[in-house]
TrEMBL record:
GO cellular component: chloride channel complex; postsynaptic membrane
Membrane topology: Multi-pass membrane protein
Domain Neurotransmitter-gated ion-channel ligand-binding: 48-247
Single GO molecular function: chloride channel activity
Protein keywords: Cell membrane, Chloride, Chloride channel, Disulfide bond, Glycoprotein, Ion channel, Ion transport, Membrane, Postsynaptic cell membrane, Signal, Synapse, Transmembrane, Transmembrane helix, Transport
Annotated compartments: Postsynaptic cell membrane
Protein name (database record): GABA(C) receptor
Organism: Sarcophilus harrisii (Tasmanian devil)
Length: 449
């Protein structure tokens, strides 16, 4: 029994020394690992455990001033359909909390990540009229907290916000849009918290490489104001204002230039023979359908607003010019038919025979032959025969005055042929339509540009 007792005794002693050795080793390892005791260090240094940070600093001493400055990284997108914009920027807060003062021989600040934010008081700034917003978290949350020995604090966030922009499309696409991002405290009114721009107008900074595909950024500015809520009172509000001017070259290529070409193409029908019905009718219908396609494509890129836009005025006026060119030919064709009926009644059967011959000739070579024109061409043929006889007989004296008379008579006959084959409405339309369209363009571009 004594041997058994001693064996148990030595075993217990051995176990005691093993436990003592491992516990001492763990204490040494914990002393070498600074990360395990670091939370205890900043808790003790900043006196976090000694204060209730649910209350704002300086409670009962008036509103706490919180300075703001913004570094805009990019404007990611601007949507006319949704009437919003998306922006990525660095939002920095500056305030003083004397509860976080700490002694420092070198007067150096301490920098922390987002894990300390949960234990201290920070301003509750939110974005008015925002649709979506988030703090970037790759590879960790993009949050930085810097505490100075005298209690001054810098709190920085990297945020992407999608907010509303109340756009006016009455001058689209020759418009300039004014958008703004508004910052405000959610819980603390002006009696508890005072938001202000830290460095005045210089508190808003932008990167030089910011650019947009459809807009040119004309101006960035910072402003401030007050917002009133009936149930909670007045709140300080900060504004990030930026002015966007739209690039027009895209819309010139997609809408204005094609519409202009279609209008000019519709004028070609004024130079086509009035009896070439298929040619003039197909040209008019083609231009009308093309203008309808252009108008549909232009309206698909903007929201369905209830007022008239600048591009609508240009496209619909262009459509009206194209449509009037078709109506013009309908009037010409109708009046031509009325005139032919009157001539047929006056001439009787003889004129009827000539008209039948003219129709047959048109069916043969595709041109209309008027009887009067054929009669008028007789002197021209006689002159041409005389000219050929004179050329064959070298002894016949020819003078310069005779040649000039022949040229004048030739020009006169050609002019009569053109006037006989075209209605007077076509003649006036060749001048009136281009003149009115040029005047419209002068007025339009002078008014909107």
């Amino acid at each position: 029994t004594s041997i058994f007792f001693w064996r148990i005794f030595f075993l217990l002693v051995f176990i005691y020394f093993v436990i003592f050795f491992y516990s001492k080793r763990e204490i040494k390892m914990s002393k070498k690992d600074n990360t395990k005791i670091w939370p205890f260090k900043y808790n003790q240094l900043l006196h976090i455990e000694d204060h209730d940070f649910a209350m704002r600093p300086g409670f009962g001493e008036g509103p706490i001033p919180v300075g703001i400055d913004v570094q805009i990284e990019s404007i990611d997108s601007i949507s006319e359909i949704d009437m919003d914009f998306t922006m990525t920027f660095y939002l920095r807060h500056y305030w003083k909390d004397e509860r976080l003062t700490f002694p420092s021989t070198r007067n150096k600040s301490m920098t922390f990540d987002g894990r300390l934010i949960q234990k201290i008081w920070v301003p509750d700034v939110f974005f008015v009229h925002s649709k979506r917003s988030f703090i970037h978290d790759t590879t960790v949350e993009n949050i930085m907290l810097r505490v100075y020995p005298d209690g001054n604090i810098l709190f920085s966030l990297r945020i992407t916000v999608s907010a509303m922009c109340f756009m006016d499309f009455s001058r689209f696409p020759l418009d300039t849009q004014n958008c703004s991002l508004e910052l405000e405290s959610y819980a603390y009114n002006e009696e508890d918290l005072m938001l202000y721009w830290k460095h005045g107008n210089k508190s808003l900074n932008t990167d030089e490489h910011i650019s947009l595909s459809q807009f040119f950024i004309e101006d960035f500015s910072a402003s401030s104001g007050l917002a009133f809520y009936s149930s909670t009172g007045w709140y300080n509000r900060l504004f990030i204002n930026f002015v966007l001017r739209r690039h027009i070259f895209f819309f010139v290529l997609q809408s204005y230039f094609p519409a202009m070409l279609m209008v000019m193409l519709s004028w070609v029908s004024f130079w086509i023979d009035r009896r070439a019905v298929p040619a003039r009718l197909s040209l008019g219908i083609t231009t009308v359908l093309t203008m309808s396609t252009i108008i549909t494509g232009a309206s698909a890129s903007v929201p369905q607003v209830s007022y008239i836009k600048a591009v609508d005025i240009y496209l619909w006026v262009s459509f009206l010019f194209v449509f009037l060119s078709v109506i013009e030919y309908a009037a010409v064709n109708y009046l031509t038919t009325v005139e032919e009926r009157k001539q047929f009644k006056k001439r009787g059967k003889i004129s009827g025979i000539h008209n039948i011959e003219a129709v047959q000739a048109m069916a043969f070579d595709g041109c209309y032959h008027d009887s009067e024109t054929d009669i008028d061409l007789t002197p021209f043929s006689i002159h041409s025969e005389e000219y050929s006889v004179n050329s064959k007989n070298p002894s016949t004296p020819t003078t310069d005055s005779a040649q000039l008379k022949r040229k004048k008579s030739l020009k006169g006959h050609v002019g009569r042929i053109i006037l006989k084959n075209n209605h007077v409405i076509d003649t006036y339309s060749r001048i009136v339509f281009p003149a009115m369209f040029i005047v419209f363009n002068f007025v339009y571009w002078g008014l909107y540009v």
